[in-house]
């Protein structure tokens, strides 16, 4: 005969009830805030704040921040009319170096040279950091997309003769945005004499192309600059999954998130110095948190930070201001961490950051340099023109979010505007 102790039964029921209550508390405090729909308890009423200062960018403050009401679709407006010289047996070789923010300019330069000379463009290799060594183009980018995009612009050889890579070809260092005159006077004589040539783009000392120089040499560089470089399928899938994770975590903002390029190692470089008494080139973690708050983003906004990990007290201050901040090591799938997340080889990390910043609903750079201007060009191509640039706090009482829209957007002086209408 089984004797049931009612006190034990009551104790078991109470213990079970406590576990249920604890589970609900954890769900409410730590899980629900990420997946709650935008209609549930918004802190700012939809359509409460609308403003259009530039005539194109309409911002609607809803769900924890000012967001662009809609993206304006872009269309290609280039019509290549230049006919290159007859195809020769010569090759133009080059490498992609420095990082993703430099790659498109190197491709555009090489296309301009090869087309003007009637040469065949050899598929480039990729030279990363010293520890990363050399990679094939297909390790990073989609080879088929590269060849298809440039079809009709210049002939691309995926497998140039092996002797070219083994021979000591003449090397010519050419300026960024190489001109037709430079090609005719400096490059062509050497190419005609040697038949094959390796070129290296010499970038300006400035970290960013100035607006007055920000023009492509010819319209056939548009596909080279903005369409030829697409990630290879595995990397593209990884980036898409991470963007998808950010959108899932930002349901309160209707699946929108802010991509902030903020890396502590960049802030420690000598180039991050004040230009003058009124402007800065770089902004630290605390300044970026203050700026985002000042232009209307609430603490519930979801933020992607290009920093890897949370080393340093400054980053903790940023996260205190915006608790829903995520870094790549948090949202990256396990297979991606094993293959692409390696502090000794940061090349993949920077590529991932670059393409996530292109896809973010809002982009805010902490360093006003080439990474910013290059990401912005790709965003213009996609119609994602909500880019805010921080400034030193001037104390103006009428400081508005639209005052910080990138001047490249407001003045339409980025080279992407000559390619996309």
Description of the molecule:
This protein is of the alpha/beta class. It contains 16 helices and 15 strands. The strands form 4 sheets. Strands 9-6-4-11-10 form a 5-stranded parallel beta sheet, with helices on one face. A 4-stranded parallel beta sheet has the order 14-13-12-15. Strand 2 and strand 3 form a beta hairpin. Helix 2 crosses helix 15. The longest helix is centred in the first third of the chain and has 30 residues. About 10% of the residues have low confidence.
What layout of secondary structure does this protein have?
Elements: H1 6-35, E1 49-51, E2 59-61, E3 66-68, E4 91-93, E5 95-96, H2 100-117, E6 120-122, E7 125-127, E8 134-135, H3 137-140, H4 143-149, E9 156-157, H5 162-166, E10 171-175, H6 180-194, E11 196-202, H7 221-226, H8 233-249, E12 258-261, H9 264-267, H10 285-294, E13 303-305, H11 313-321, E14 325-327, H12 328-331, H13 334-340, H14 347-359, E15 362-365, H15 370-382, H16 407-411
How do the strands line up in the largest sheet? 9-6-4-11-10
Largest sheet, in brief, is: 5 strands, parallel
Radius of gyration, in angstroms, nearest whole number: 26 Å
Total helices: the number is 16
Helicity range of the residues?
25-40%
Short synopsis of the structure:
This protein has helices at 6-35, 100-117, 137-140, 143-149, 162-166, 180-194, 221-226, 233-249, 264-267, 285-294, 313-321, 328-331, 334-340, 347-359, 370-382, 407-411; strands spanning 49-51, 59-61, 66-68, 91-93, 95-96, 120-122, 125-127, 134-135, 156-157, 171-175, 196-202, 258-261, 303-305, 325-327, 362-365. With 421 residues, it is an alpha/beta fold.
